[in-house]
Design brief:
The protein is 45% helix and 10% strand. By secondary structure, it is an alpha/beta fold. It has 4 domains: 192 residues, P-loop containing nucleotide triphosphate hydrolases (Rossmann fold), CATH 3.40.50; 128 residues, no CATH class; 235 residues, Rossmann fold, CATH 3.40.50; 287 residues, no CATH class. Strands 5-6-4-7-12-3-13 form a 7-stranded parallel sheet. A 7-stranded parallel sheet has the order 16-17-15-18-19-14-20, with helices on both faces. Strand 1 and strand 2 form a beta hairpin. Helix 21 crosses helix 22 and helix 37 packs antiparallel against helix 38. 43% of the residues are buried. It comes from Elaeis guineensis var. tenera (Oil palm). Pfam families: ARCH_RTEL1, DEAD_2, Helicase_C_2, HHD_RTEL1. One of its GO terms (molecular function) is DNA polymerase binding. It catalyses: ATP + H2O = ADP + phosphate + H(+).
Length: 1042
Amino acid sequence: MPIYKIRGIDVDFPFEAYDCQIVYMEKVIQSLQEGCNALLESPTGTGKTLSLLCATLAWRKSLGDFLTTTNEDKNRYSGSQHSQSQSTENPRSNYPVIIYTSRTHSQLKQVIRELKTSNYRPKMAVLGSREQMCIHDEVRLLRGRAQNNACHYLCKKRLCRHYTRVSEYMKSHHEPGNEPFDIEDLVNIGRTKGPCPYYLSRELHKVVDILFAPYNYLIDPGNRRSLMGIQWNNAVLIFDEAHNLEGVCADAASFDLPLGSLTACISEAKQCVDVCIARRVIEKSADKQRDPDNYAILRALLLKLEKRIAEVTIESKELGFTRPGNYIYEFLSDLNITYETANMLIDTIDNAALLLEEESMTDTGMQTKTKGTVCRLESIRDILNIIFRDGGKSHSKFYCFHVQESQQSNMDSFKGKVSRTLSWWCFNPGLAMEEFIRLGVRSIILTSGTLSPLDSFALELNLKFPVRLENPHVISPHQIWVGVVPSGPSGYPLNSSYRNRDFLEYKQELGNAIVNFARIVPDGLLVFFPSYYMMDRCIECWKNKGHSSSTDFSTIWDRICRTKQPVVEPRQSSLFPHAIEDFEAKLRDSTTSGAIFFAVCRGKVSEGLDFADQAGRAVVITGMPFSMKTDPKVRLKRQYLDQQALSQNKDSKVLTGEEWYVQQAARAVNQAVGRVIRHRHDYGAIIFCDERFAQQNRQCQMSYWLRPHIKCYPKFGDVVFTLTRFFREKGTCGTLKPKPAETLSIVKTRLPEHKISLPKMLPCLASTTEHCSRKSLSSVLADSRSNIFNKLGQVVPANRSTLSNKANCHLTVHNLRESSLKESQCHDDEVVDLTSDTPYHEQPIEDASTPSIKKLRTSKIDSSVVDCECDEWLHNGHSRSSLEKFSSSSSTGGHNKEISGLSPYGSVNYGTYDKDICTQHGQFGSAMISNGEINTEKTTEKPSREEDIRSSSLPHGDKETRGSAFLMQVQEKLTVAEYKEFVGLMKALKSKTMKITSVLGSIAKLFFAPERICLLKRFKDFVPTKYHPIYEEHLRANGAAD
């Protein structure tokens, strides 16, 4: 494994590191060496986790060897006091402990898997919840507080055999933690050898080099206090996947108390009174913990609180009742709830929880009256801990007191009645971070793939981050397509703002755009909406609305389902696993071209799921996911930030309410975008279907690696064309993996038409394909791209045209053709004869000083002339040679037999541009596409003089002459890769390895682009009459029907 010297530290890395990984590790080590905080963004797929682990552990190892099991450690678990003195005397225990946290257990499992790939073997432990770790036959079936209470009761009574075996196991086994392990490994130890995995992890964490834990173990004060063995002074805290850390910190310091929950607490207090009275009669005990008077007082206080909340005057249902944060103390003091009485209430609630748990048990074991005992009173205890923290009131200035009326659902005890909720919201997420500063931690490292914009993160958390990084991606530019789509197929603006989102025209336009994307994008397609409301309204509209055309009654939803099977993200968390399974099953279904997942920004799909490779080839963002401004929490947060900004020094950086509001939406977009491009060899597209993404101030808030790739496409036709070409090239190139550099120059050489014969081309085309197939097309394209651009100058960029206007055209087509004949006579030795056995790519290149007929035609003739010319020629009644005759003259036998012929790009209908959507707003006609522009009006103009000349110069002779002319236009309009595909289709037709219907479909895909409509129309001349109806379907789908 390579070793990198970074800031004087030897970093043992398991692979050859990318440049961005070296930079990332350098920033990590800088933060650790200088003892400062770091804010590091590195896109998914750049090896962020492995780089973070290796850099941190290399720095830790530079201070001294990792903790290993010693003879002294064998007695470490004989007693808690002895254990504590041992760790104090051991000099190695003074080394900084690394605490690595992430949001979920599944993310931590992935981190530990990365640790196993490295050479570092620190002493480690992993913490988890009872839900993941409990192996007790009955307790493991419970959830939440019911499970915690049952565990506490059994352990206190020493009735759990797994709990009692922990200390015995630790005395005889010293290897746990020397090798990387995860929660599943601990569970296996528990099942095979007996100790409780949960309490085993609590013992292991006391002496470690690195500890893995979920966020809440650090952010929640109660969980943090339970980590008795951690030496916080000089510790290193790492928050991975930290993009939502500010929200987690604020939520952990806030609470909402609905009256429904308060009513349940009052009932539990009454139950405690009844239980104590009954037990006193039976047991005749004077235990103060069983004094019914304590619970009677608690119940009386809760009743007063309920009444007090109900009496609050709410003048406006929308605004509610709002006061500064310190109002909570005045509000509770009327109930005699103060700092002096709060601790007594907390103790009483703890005793009540234990009492209720005991009451739910039987002497025979874990039979419960209900599905476990959930003590609602514990929520009151948590609220009191938040309000009366630290013995002071200074933190209340970061809070807001709010009472809101809300309509309850029919599922709760109020059955649709109006209820109230008391809230105390924290608007300073930095409170949790300030606690770590007071504990004396060395460094806090926040990292994620989507932290942008970084400034708001630092300001929100109220921390200084001297070390910052926004890393680029490891992928190449050709692996990503990023485009802003400001308008749909008919030109109607795409804007999901509050003013536009309910317009029928907007929802139809968005739906029609997605129909086209579903046809173009292979395999998995993700579509993200700003909210569940928007997703529901759009899908409802698409199921009821279809084309404006009277000839097609299918709905937008029907047309989406023709190409991709839909899955919709459910609101209920319990249904989400089923939705994921459904999506995976539909992706595997070979009878369709993939699946489409409709989801919501900030939802479950946008957070932490991996849609690599075929699972997510493109993501569509349908709008800016702004939170509702009328939401009380959002409104008050903005007011709080605006007030803070006014009170701050003008020279200091501040975050206003509007800036926070916009940046929260941008961060949600970045998170959704991160579902695609999951590794070095992945590729995909990111489609922004909202005109607001074209604004510079929106783009600058996107992730750093994404910004250089963003292009704005003013016309929807440009989007379809470039996106189709992107996926066609990826489908042709196959898997994108690094290969040795190969040099092969391919230049599209202009061929004189008298040297080309369509019926005679098949043998040489087969030869061409065989020779070209020796090289990877991806490497061929990469090596030849600059050569093509420099020598021919005819390849037009995706989003603009180099064709001149007809007014600037000084050469007639007749003159051009004459010059081409002279040129071919003068340079006969340079003519490529497709009837020979010489491979196409080995032909000599035209002299750069000799003007190519293709170059002249491309630079001097407007593409509309070519379109009209082809149309005119097709309608002049010339004799048509059929593809049936062509096939029979090229090979023996009739039509091809049934075989399984697949397009090189999979089964997706690439490039099937949905032109029926151009009939919106009463505009209905034979839509034409020219220069990527959609024209919804019928073209009734007569051809110009130049068009007449061009038309009269076309061959009127036998099928070979007309076939030669057609082939010339094919070579002229197609790229190298596309021409290779065309060759393959002709070869497949000759060798009878493809059905003719498949050939027709593939040809339609090749000729769908605006400047290729003439090819699409003219190819009908070579289609057998019996297959005209099938081919005409393709013409209609691409807006080329006569």
